[in-house]
Design goal:
It is a single chain. By secondary structure, this protein is an alpha+beta fold. Helices cover about 15% and strands about 30% of the residues. It is built from three helices and eleven strands; from the N terminus they run E-E-E-H-E-H-E-E-E-E-H-E-E-E. The strands form two sheets. Strands 1, 2, 3, 4, 7, 8, 9, 10 and 11 form a nine-stranded mixed β-sheet that branches. A hairpin with a 2-residue loop joins strand 5 (about 95) and strand 6. The longest helix has 9 residues, at about 85-95. The protein starts with a strand and ends with a strand.
Length: about 180
């Protein structure tokens, strides 16, 4: 029977088990998960936080990670500024990036979510407000959410992947994992 691990990846952790070839030691999945035979189903940038799925089932791994299956991935995104309706509509219809037009997404402004404190904290500037949005995409290009928000004029300050498909981060603190 296959295993599926839900892991709340803290900021600063690489989404791989080793960091070979790097002269300075960086945190990896092996610092948190001691479960042989499981591998990440997709990636999450080192400077992003939130849900990572790991499995020992190659078919399940492909179904989760491969964009052709269009599995929704929902992110809570803290951005610089306060996106207007036009920016949210633009995100919803797709954004032109250097590597092409993104698929349509779901984008909505939300109140600040009740999340754990980030280490290090997000920079605070009195002269520039920040706000939160929920963004759901069905593809997974490199740094896609950050590039999308920047393209509509609202750079990402904090990025937390909350869910992938039917699996969510609910109840997991940073660095914690559980079997699904």
């Amino acid at each position: 029977m296959s295993r599926l691990v839900l892991f709340n990846k803290p900021m600063g952790v690489l989404s791989q088990f080793t960091d070979r070839g790097n002269p300075t030691s960086r945190a990896t999945l092996s610092d948190y998960i001691d479960l042989p035979g499981v591998y990440p189903a997709g990636r999450l940038d080192r400077d992003s936080e939130g849900l990572m799925l790991l499995t020992d089932d190659g078919k399940l791994q492909a179904r989760i990670a491969d964009p052709k299956f269009k599995l929704p991935k929902t992110y809570l995104v803290q951005v610089e500024g306060e996106p207007d309706t036009g920016a949210l509509t633009h995100l919803s219809r797709g954004v032109e990036l250097k590597d092409g037009l993104t698929r349509a997404a779901q984008a909505e402004a939300i109140d600040a979510p009740d999340l754990w404190p980030r280490d290090p904290p997000v920079r605070f500037r009195k002269s520039v407000p920040d706000s939160w949005m929920r963004l759901t995409i069905r593809e997974g290009r490199n740094r896609q959410v950050r590039r999308m928000t920047a393209a509509v004029g609202y750079p990402t300050l904090r990025l937390v992947r909350w869910s992938v498909g039917d699996w969510s981060l609910d109840g997991l603190q940073p660095g914690q994992w559980r079997l699904a």
